[in-house]
Specification:
By secondary structure, this protein is α+β, with helices and mostly antiparallel strands. Helix content is 24%, strand content 27%. It is elongated and about 70 Å long.
Length: 329
């Protein structure tokens, strides 16, 4: 029997899934497989090589930009016809660690936000919670199960990009934690994308197999990626004898608009000074590839987002109040 037949006057009902958000949602689609993309080597006459650039110190004005996001509750919205769409309550934050030769490293340009995001194009507003929790009401048109999560990711990435844009204008060399998607690139933008995870093979098999041979401070030949980017792999630190061959390896991305000569000069210098910032195993479980300034920034941002358990409790109470208001209307 359909819900509408059982209760023709039933209103929309918002539900909070009972398990911890870190376990994922009950409504889930299969993960899409990443496809191999064999990129063209644009340096060394198209021959793949390992380079050991000369020693170089970090730029005079250097900053690291990163963000965090957190799904705090998975939500459902069931209408009077018994149809259910998914959503979430989540938070995000972004900022920068600024390292100037004339002073100590400082965290700045910090922004945080919290939202309720539903698929299906319809917004659901929650009242502010007495504990100080506030949510922006957002919606995405898609009804795909991951649509809300993808939008939360986009909110974080957009905030990161806006912060990076301001720092470019102020003359900072920016290390952007992640790929350079969403960054407004030009030949004058001083930026390096820093990618810690490797979900797809980006090179021909024989070149891909050579990447783990990198020593600390070395880099591979430059190759061209989609989206007007050049890239190379570097090793930023020694992860220890127990680690896998790709541990300690990151991919650097630079704007192709700067030209191959400038790109080579940028990654040459970065391959030598980035290992200075590699994290230590006793401080960071993702060492050495997670850079120490980034780890510090992430810790600060998570602190600003507040206790995830209290956030979940606030969502539950706000949802219960919304449902009571709907019943009383």
């Amino acid at each position: 029997m359909a819900l509408s037949e059982a209760n023709p006057t039933a209103r929309a009902f918002i539900g909070v899934e009972p398990f911890d958000a870190s376990y994922g949602a009950g409504f889930r689609a299969g993960e899409e497989e990443e496809h191999t993309v064999e990129c063209r080597v644009v340096e060394d006459g198209g021959r793949f090589r390992i380079h050991r650039p000369p020693d170089a110190g970090p730029p005079a004005r250097l900053c690291f930009v990163d963000g965090v996001r957190r799904t705090e509750a998975h939500l459902t919205r069931t209408n009077s016809e018994g149809e259910t769409i998914t959503g979430l309550a989540g938070a995000w934050g972004a900022g920068a660690v600024l390292i100037d030769r004339d002073g100590p490293a400082e965290i700045g340009h910090v922004e945080v936000g919290r939202a309720v995001i539903f698929s299906g194009g319809e917004r659901v507003g929650l009242r502010p919670h007495a504990g100080g929790w506030r949510w922006t009401s957002l919606a995405v048109e898609s009804e795909e199960p991951h649509a809300a999560s993808q939008h939360l990711q986009r909110l974080m990435r957009d905030t990161e990009a806006e912060i990076a844009d301001r720092l470019f204008a102020e003359g900072w060399m920016v290390v952007f934690d992640g790929p350079l998607h969403g960054i407004r690139l030009s030949s004058a933008v001083p930026v390096v994308g820093y990618v810690k995870t490797h979900h797809r093979r980006t090179l021909a098999v024989e070149h891909w197999q050579a990447v783990p041979r990198l020593a600390v401070g070395e880099r591979t030949s430059l190759f061209a990626m989609k989206g007007e980017r050049y890239a190379c792999y570097i090793r930023v630190g020694d992860p220890g004898p127990w680690a896998g061959p790709w541990a300690g390896i990151a991919r650097l991305e630079v704007p192709a608009s700067s030209g191959s000569g400038q790109a080579v000069a940028t990654v040459d210098r970065a391959a030598r000074w980035l290992p200075v910032f590699a994290s230590a195993p006793h401080r960071d479980a993702r060492a050495p590839v997670n850079l120490a300034p980034v780890a510090r920034l992430e810790q600060h941002l998570h602190h600003l987002l507040g206790d995830s358990r209290l956030a979940l409790r606030a969502v539950r109470e706000a949802v219960m109040q919304l449902n009571r208001d709907e019943e009383a209307a």
